[in-house]
Amino acid sequence: MAKVAVTHKFDAAAEDVWALVGGFHTLPNWHPAAVRSTDQSDGNDIVRDLELPDGGHVIERLEEFSNAARSYTYSIIGGVMPVAGYVATLSVFEDDNGASAVAHWTAEFDVVGADEQETVDLVANDVFRTGLAAAAEKV
Q1: pTM of the predicted model as reported, rounded to 2 decimal places
Q2: What dihedral angle (degrees, nearest 10) is formed by the CA atoms of 34, 133, 86, 56?
Q3: pLDDT digits (tens, 9 = 90+) for 48-84
Q4: Scanning 12, 42, 102, 122, which has the fewest C-beta atoms within 10 Å of its C-beta?
């Protein structure tokens, strides 16, 4: 099983960072790899269909959400990512007595039909690092 963990420090309060990144359907507002998030919820499950810049899609289901803890966990349930059992958590914490924030984005998954290191690098760099850097520019 592959594991990815990325941390990013923000020069903003945790509540401000969470206000930007904490909405499950707001990824296109801050992440350059998400063109659109379409709600595909089916009653019991909250599901987003993320459209990518190349026209591909990644379908994700919200597993846990806490505004109080500034954290949500989601799984990939379909789309173009060569993964199985993908579960990720995005969390935002206070740092430096509330003057700044730290975001932690972690994932565990099995790679299917692709090079494991390339897939780990894709998630770590193109998804997590790129997204958090873009969020830092917007907050």
Answers
A1: 0.95
A2: 20
A3: 999 999 999 999 999 999 999 999 999 999 999 999 9
A4: 42
